[in-house]
Amino acid sequence: MAEPLLRVENLCKWFEVRRGLFSKPLYLKAVDNVSFELMRGEAVSLVGESGSGKTTLGRTILRLLEPTKGRIIFDGKDITHLRPKELMWYRREASLVQQDPYGALPSFMNIYRILEEPLLIHKVGDREERRERIFKALEEVRLTPVEDFAFKYPHMLSGGQLQRVAIARALILRPKLVIADEPVSMLDASVRIEILTLMRELQEKRRISFIYITHDLSTTRYFSEWIYIMYAGHLMEIAPTKELISNPQHPYTQALLAAIPDPDPENRKRFRKVPPGEPPSLINPPPGCRFHPRCPYAMDICRREEPPMIDLGGGHRVKCWLYAKR
Amino acid sequence: MSTPRYEMGLKAALRELLSYKSGVMGLGLLLLLVAISIYTVIAIPYDRAISLWRGEGGIWLDKPRNAAPIWIKYLIGKNLPENIVLDTRVRRVGVVKAVTPIPGTNFKKLYIEFTFNYPYDGFPSEINLFFYAKYNATAPLLRIYWVKPGGEEFKLMDYMLRAPDDILYLSINPEAYRSALRHVVEALGKEPATELPIEVCLFGVEDESMLDVSTARSLKGTYKLIIRGTLFGEDADVDVKAVIYGRVWGLAGTDHLRRDLTIALLWGTPVAMAFGLTASVAVSIIHLIIGTISGYYGGKVDLIIQRLTEIYMVIPFLPFLILLATFYKLTIWLILAVVIILSIFSPGIKSTRALVMQIREYPYIEAAKAYGASDLRIVFLYIIPKILPPIVPGMIGAIPGYVFLEAGLSILGLGDPYLPTWGKVINDAYTNGALYKGYYYWVLEPSFMLILTALAFAMLGFALDKIVNPRLREL
After folding, report:
1. pTM, full prediction
2. Best mutation site among A155, A169, A181, A213 for testing chain B: the one with the most B CBs within 10 Å?
3. What's the rounded Cα separation, in Å, for the pair B225 and B123?
4. What ipTM describes this predicted complex?
5. Residues B226, B343: one domain?
6. Quick one: B418 and B459 in the same domain?
7. Measured between beta carbons, which residues in chain A are less than 8 angstroms from residue B367?
8. What is the DSSP secondary structure assignment for residue B204, as one 8-state letter?
9. What is the pLDDT of residues B68-98, one digit of tens each?
10. What is the edge-to-edge ordering of all strands in the sheet holding A317-318?
11. Domain match, B104 and B43 both
12. Could you list the residue range(s) of the whole structural domain that residue B420 is in?
């Protein structure tokens, strides 16, 4: 088996919360004990509701947040605790596409300058080479005619166009890993698929590893080979996209899939099984399985012990006592 | 979608500025002040300005004391007396000088006759005679006569030169005064009711009105000042410059030391502009940088900067400045440095910091970190350009404050000891009781210049504010 591009081992990101000057600090465990491997050229979707820690996980992997525990191994190198100067090569290899295209670009720079910044920081090429690369990048995200777009300012573009610029910026250093954090959730429905297919196309063409963070299971099928389901800081289920959608194992995944609106009016009266309650507090998570307070199948052991990751074969893994062979 | 205007470039910004009335006026006034400054610095270089203001070489001696500006005549509709300078060394109509040897001796007879027209209302402020003589052992002996229009010649006094470059202050000479008064009494047959200055005796209409200073009128016509004398020695010679000082002089008038006020008014312009602009720009940029660093880095850096700012806020700025200026006579550039140093950590930092703490969380900053931008790069290329535009109008608007601060210190007598500035003129006026004595021009002229400067920058600031403010809502 080939060496994975990214290996995350027992990664934790805890935020310190202080109630008072002398009280013991509490920890908000946004990401707790997460492990997975990402192969070269593979796209995965990281799905979870808001507050599940999926954004924090993405940011920690990019080292925009300092990991609390665990290890991040990228391309065979441990980058968990590297200092900013030693990280420069990683900044070139891993990049970020953000949710809000309106805020993601500095309003006082034109598009050309925005795309030139990463090249300048990493001292890529001379003036002429940079120019060529910027124009090519704009062409790739189909902002043509390139000469027109290059010297516009962000406020002159639409949301979809801005997100294309953001994607061009994320790809201009030719990274091996791109983390896209809800890249289409703030866009009009009409341009979402366009942006997603564009990203998918570029991902396949360049064989980039891609982590697509979303709360929307329905968009993942356009995109990824794998789906990771995250709940309250834990990875709950990992499976190939088709397998997960057709054969969800974890009760939480089943509930998520059931909650997708059905466009068929025939089914409008059908009752949706949505688990009661809300995601738990991350400062004081429930003992055992974090989903047990809302789980229809909760057993005694679920309340006492955290379930292990259970391999169901074919890469399908699930963190649930239901599948434990005892 | 609204157009963020500052991104349209300098030319467009200027056009935008000119679409506001206050912008046009502010820019016009500013250009005027800049033109005055450039002219001044070229026409009267720094060293010359200082030597002029100190009156080196007695250059102001034939200027009147406390004379109003000449255009006052048109304002009040009275033909106020101007300066009359008569000099035997300058050949012109009305000046006669004759030296004739007395046969059989080596003495010479001197005859000087100054004829001048006096068409003015009111009396001259002073009369002085400046002598430029050459002699060996014995000083020339002179007799001075005065002839009123249509009147008889009468002798004012005898005078023996005390030095080759002697000055006869005719206005305060008792002998001349006695003769002039005697002439008046003889002409009118009465003693005057009040004391008559010699200028009134010499220039007044000789009737009942002259007996009282307040009703005396000047006699318009051709006057003569005659000097007869005897020179002793072959090469003895005397030249005379007679100055009948007026009551108006020049474009700006003169002060108590006969100095031309235009020098101070002109030199005050570049000084005020340089002081205000430098102080305001330096202080704003320092605040911008420190505030941004404080807000962006947070943690210990922020803690130190914020506590320092709070300590600075407790130090009373003006009293401290006055204290320093009192102990050490500071030049204007030192005052500027002290003002900037005293404002390094001031409340402006707090507002910048608040703004930066907000911008720090913007996605584009996170994106920049993700592609490896260093903290310094983020501070200077990502945050400061974002908050600079709303700060510019404030920076321009703060300039008058610093101009007034400098003037205020000068008025208190704490300004630059050498440079002529507007504040110093007001200080002179104040210590010499200008308003009490009615020398309004002395106070009003520098005040007008101060207000003009303040107005120029304030109006420019208002206009810029209107242009930049829509951005503020977006921040």
Report:
1. 0.81
2. A155
3. 16
4. 0.90
5. no
6. yes
7. 96, 98, 104-105, 166, 169
8. B
9. 999 999 999 999 999 999 999 988 888 999 9
10. A94-97, A177-181, A209-214, A43-47, A226-231, A234-240, A317-318, A310-311
11. no
12. 2-54+260-474
